[in-house]
Specification:
Blueprint lengths: L10 H7 L5 H5 L8 E4 L2 E4 H23 L8 H21 L1
Antiparallel strand pairs: 1-2
């Protein structure tokens, strides 16, 4: 006896029609446009501004740490300064755009 194969019996199609396949779509339903600001006629994402200011604040903090002799106690520096940049960046984002 020959068995008929339908498209739904195909495994990739079953996965596509699965209710679990809709979970990622439900996660992005509430997404909206990214906040942006007008700078000389062009719209820039605000996270870019927060990133640049976060880097500048980290450079200022490093100069301050060098001046007071605190950098010698920070270890490992390759983790400290990127984390400090992320801290400044996210704090600025929350203060001004949240």
């Amino acid at each position: 006896m020959l068995k008929r194969y339908y498209a739904v019996d195909n495994l990739p199609v079953k996965r596509l029609l699965s209710p679990y396949a809709l979970v990622p779509l439900m996660a992005i339903i509430g997404c909206s446009r990214a906040p942006s600001f007008n700078l000389l006629g062009s719209y820039f994402p605000s996270w870019m501004l927060c990133g640049v200011i976060g880097i500048l604040l980290t450079v200022a903090a490093r100069l301050f740490f060098l001046k007071i002799g605190f950098e010698q106690y920070l270890s490992p520096l390759i983790l400290v300064y990127p984390c400090l940049t992320a801290f400044f960046m996210f704090t600025l984002w929350l203060l001004f755009f949240s």
